[in-house]
Amino acid sequence: MRLTTYSDYALRCLIYLATQDEPDKLVNIQDIADAYDISKNHLTKIVHQLATLGYIESVRGRNGGIRLAKLPKNINIGTVIRQTESDFSIVDCFAPIDKNVFVTPQTSKKFPGENITIKQQISLCKISPACKLKGVFYEATQSFLSVLDRYTLEDMTMNRSELTQLFNS
Questions:
Q1: CATH of 5-168 given 1.50.10.20, 1.10.10.10, 1.10.3720.10, 3.10.129.10
Q2: Based on CB atoms within 10 Å of each CB, which residue in 71, 119, 156, 161 is the most buried?
């Protein structure tokens, strides 16, 4: 299972905020971007979603910034991943069948120039109706998420002083 950069940055942002000496201190997005050497623009989009989801409190204005809206022990890693990942499909046959969703030439890299529905795309695999592999992949995905469900942000920041040193180096 491979997570997107979006989820990776979301977790990094939460880890950074959880390692702050003063939990109520407001942090600039630029500080987090600099600490990880990542794009501030991309991180801003992620922070917006984390605020919408209730993980981060965002304060606007000259002295504004962001901070955790929940205690680290109340932020479950599995839940964050489920909310920041758009797709857990390991293979195409995992995609939900929806007769109303169309893959267009603009959105499809696999079938350029064709207008096909998701249902038609899935049925391109001849063995799909009898294939047992998708069940194995589904089980593997559930196991992956189950492991993440056992951890909180607090677990990820138990080595807080070591993380803080690395942020400041």
A1: 1.10.10.10
A2: 156
